[in-house]
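Chain X:
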Amino acid sequence: MVAKTAFRVVVRALVFMPALVVSHTFAQGVLTASDQIAQADALYTSGASTFGNSGLTRDQAGVDFHATQDRRHVAASFDGRGFAEHGATFLPSNPGINGPFLGAILDACTSAEITRSAIGPHSYEEAYGLASGLIEFTIDTPHNWSWVGGWQGASFSTGAYNLVDAELSFSDINTGTPYVYDYRASLNGVGDWVQNFAYGGVIGPGNYRITWWHESYCAGGNTPFGFFASGAGGAPLISCINSTFQIWPVPAPGTAALLATAALALCRRRNSALPA
């Protein structure tokens, strides 16, 4: 009779375990906000007029996003190009706001280049690229998280103002707790970086924000940062990131305890069946 009772315990445990495991497997976050931007321009100012080429692509619907802005302007001894490519591919794909969120592939690339400059007739010249992303999500159970990838940036010293900067951040919206914050800048050839990164940990129920952006800026003349006699400088694709952010549920203590209990009962059943 004891052996039969133990056997029934094992069977019941094994019957109910799959349901518990499945419920935690499908636990997931909810996407609450998404703002993805690719922006670029190339322009100059002469007198009171500005001439150039600019564009911006933006999406806030929470769908998979990939956009490129490649803006070049050639005129009056000026040749400039601003470039931005930005991507957010959600896991699962195209969740929409208030849809399921398990992570995203996060990419960005920018550059700014001026190859012909005429400061004098031009009071200001600019080439600019910005790739910017924001994702917010909420979870109601503890989750593991990871953010793995690589990023880089480089600027040049040519007599123009040449800035490349970028930021990674992951934080708790309600408390302001920063789980990741990294800002890099290369200015006029100083501060170049090439780095792989791997962040991770456990977060509790709450609301969270991810941001990542890259910016490239090349300018001459009367810039916000002072006067520069030339705008010429920069180079293609000098600021980039490729990364993946993911979350997955932490198994509840009850699930682990049930697994241990079932295993122990099964071992006892097998031991009692062995010949003396």
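Chain Y:
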Amino acid sequence: MVKLKFFITYARCMKKKKDLELKDYELCFIPVPVYLISTVDEHNIYNIAPYGMVMPVSYHPLIISIGSSKNRDTYRNIKAINEFVLNAPSSNMLKKVNRTADPVPSEVDEFIHANLTPIESKIVKPPRIEECTTHMECKTMWIKEVSEEAKNRVIITAEVVALSLDEDLLRTNLCKQKGLMRPLYYEKHIYFTLGGYIGDRRMR
């Protein structure tokens, strides 16, 4: 009888799950961090574009992968030059981040369009974005199509060859450092920012 009561109580406390259509993916995904990718084309025209499909795949060596459409100037520039910079914008840059997403012609310098400042990179040809907090200079390793069903989508994998950040963000305490970065997150036309530290891997 006691066991029966326990199982009835347990069943009542269980979370109910709701099946979704694949088109409702945004309800299951955690918002992704926003990066501004700066590139340069073969005519030395600067381009900037916001990207959320960015993921580290190795820390030693430091390698990242990016999901991109073939229709973007960013993809075409990376394919031609094999270099780019991942710049991390802060939440106070939201309006300028949105301007980098404007559908402007490829011959338009997007630093000028978004009112952002190019600064010379340490190793790669594309410039860093001064207003961003951190920068990862990258050299392309390979580019592959995602699948037969998604021929317009590619995965760009690159090695990070140089890192830099705002000097006042240099902190050994990552909790404080990430808070000062004020990173920007995105999901389905909505932006978010970092809530704050709640624990670490030692917690059980």
